[in-house]
Amino acid sequence: MNSVCLGKDTALTLGRSQQLSVALMGVNLTMDACRRPGAAVCKLTCAELKLGIKDGLNACCYICIFSFTVNKFEVKCLISLFYNLVGDVTERQGVVVGLDRNAFRNILHVTFGMTDDMIMDRVFRGFDKDNDGCVSVSEWVYGLSVFLRGTLEEKMKYCFEVFDLNGDGFISKEEMVHMLKNSLLKQPSEEDPDEGIKDLVEITLKKMDHDHDGKLSFPDYEAAVREEALLLEAFGPCLPDPKSQKEFEAQVFKDPNEFGEV
Asked: Domain EF-hand spans what residues (predicted)?
């Protein structure tokens, strides 16, 4: 069974024992068929969830699920998969079950073929929006909606957040060197590999640093990616490759008749 962690309450899991539903994509989606017995979700209106005011939700753990780019059926499938992954963990009122760092990294490696430890850690932090050390069901669906169906704008914001290692709003030369050392293939060479990395960083800055301040802001990164889409993952693979994505979707988004219409 995968590792799990019990963390802070989030927008989707609020420990209510009433009829379970949540407003997804403008319609009420009944969750009974998708969740394990005993799991509970408070019924929220769109306005309540967006503002994060129900049951004392704070700004840190609030996630607007109405921006999902996956459709209603796919949301159901992702929620069902989440609870299969966390396994049979007893839920307590006010406590959310989620995927901890090790379990999440294992999914990234086995399912999406990611191998860079540092990038996988950053992807985990990108999913774990409330920084409670585990990925909750809402964070899981929101993150995968960007992974699988995200717009270019969403993917740029996500990738920049992954590459901004210290969270200061910039990708520095030092961060570029660190990431490229980890992501580039290790090949025997007579040249000093560190010098080669530094040269590559200088070339990258010439291409992407539009305001010439020696670091990449999001506007720098965005402009470069819009000019050349291959620069989206310039510092390491942090999105599923097409083959892994296709295989994941074939396994998870199957048998529409399994879920009845709401």
From this structure: 115-150, 151-186, 196-231
